[in-house]
Every structure is written in structure tokens, then in C-alpha cells.
Design a protein that fits this description.
The protein is of the alpha/beta class and 182 residues long. 44% of the residues lie in helices and 26% in strands.
């Protein structure tokens, strides 16, 4: 017998188009009771926590980003960097790369120590620079329900500290690509 966990894993491995088609088929079927049960049991609208941080060795200079994706007990770390960029660009890139890693629409809590990122997304701060990244972030946010949350940096928050470590480590890697938007 197939377990709920195995079925969830199979659903989560679908492409966005296949997932959308499956969900539409389920919701349009005549099995109303089954629809409610599968919606509740499989939690098709996945809840995800994304922790992000960006760093630059000099500003501008080599930069990196660190990300933790967390779903229930599952956790994935991502990082990357650029040879010449800014700290603000890396903060934005961390959020972008975190959202890009999601395979289908999710309810997201995105944590960052960047007031630049969080306040621009929640308090409509004016976007004066990095327009290329803001446009990319807006597009990704339109695919998910994203709540931006600020955490104080360098204050002992375990996920923020780990993201900072990943970002700084990525910024120090050799042969980093160039940041084409900078």
C-alpha cells in the first residue's frame, strides 16, 4: 500500500504545469468528498520557510548569497556568488534564488536581515537601483504567496547565521561569474 508520504513526494516531483493540471483535474472531478480529503491530506499548497542572506567582501566586490529552504523537517541549503557586485544585490539575489528553487506555487515565509529587501517589499520603499533584480523578484512573488519577514542580523538567529556563513563562503570561491546587472 502506498503511504501518504510517498504520494506527497510524487506530487512534489511534478513540474509546475503537470502539478497545475493535476490539481485542476482533482478540483473539477465529481468526487467532491475525495477532493476535500486529498486537499486536506496532501496539503497541495505547500508551506515553506526561506531564510536568506547576502554578503560582499568589499562593497562593491566579490559577493555571495546563502539560502536555507525549510519544509517541515526537510531542509536544503543553497549558495552562490559573483566576482564583482554589491551587498544589496546579493540580498536580492538570495531571495530570488530561494524562490526559484520552489517547484510549484507555495505559501512562503521569507526571512532576511536586509531592511532594504524587507521594507521595499512590505512598505513600498522606492526602488532606485537594482531594477533588474526587483523585476525578477516581483515576477517570482506573483507565482507564490510570499510574506517577507525581517530578522536582526548577527544576533544569534541560527538560520540567519548559517545563511551568512554560506554567503561569505560563496563570495570567497575562485572563478566566480560576473554579475551582468552590475
Amino acid at each position: 500500500m502506498t503511504t501518504i508520504k510517498e504520494i506527497k513526494a510524487a506530487i512534489q516531483s511534478l513540474s509546475l504545469d503537470d502539478f497545475t493540471s493535476l490539481k485542476k483535474w482533482i478540483m473539477e472531478s465529481d468526487w467532491e468528498d475525495w477532493n476535500q480529503e486529498i486537499e486536506a491530506d496532501f496539503n497541495l499548497e505547500k508551506k515553506v520557510q526561506i531564510y536568506t542572506d547576502g554578503a560582499c567582501i568589499k562593497n562593491p566586490g566579490p559577493g555571495g548569497y546563502g539560502i536555507i529552504l525549510s519544509v517541515n523537517e526537510d531542509r536544503k541549503e543553497l549558495s552562490g556568488g559573483y566576482s564583482y557586485t554589491t551587498n544589496n544585490r546579493m540580498e536580492l539575489m538570495a531571495a530570488i534564488k530561494g524562490l526559484e528553487a520552489l517547484k510549484f506555487p507555495c505559501e512562503v515565509e521569507l526571512y532576511s536581515d536586509s531592511q532594504y529587501l524587507v521594507n521595499t517589499m512590505t512598505k513600498n520603499w522606492k526602488r532606485k537601483a537594482n531594477i533588474d533584480l526587483w523585476e525578477e523578484l516581483d515576477e517570482l512573488c506573483s507565482q507564490h504567496q510570499v510574506k517577507f519577514l525581517w530578522v536582526k542580523g548577527h544576533s544569534g538567529h541560527p538560520e540567519n547565521e548559517r545563511c551568512d556563513f554560506l554567503a561569505r563562503k560563496a563570495a570567497k570561491q575562485p572563478n566566480l561569474p560576473s554579475d551582468s546587472g552590475y
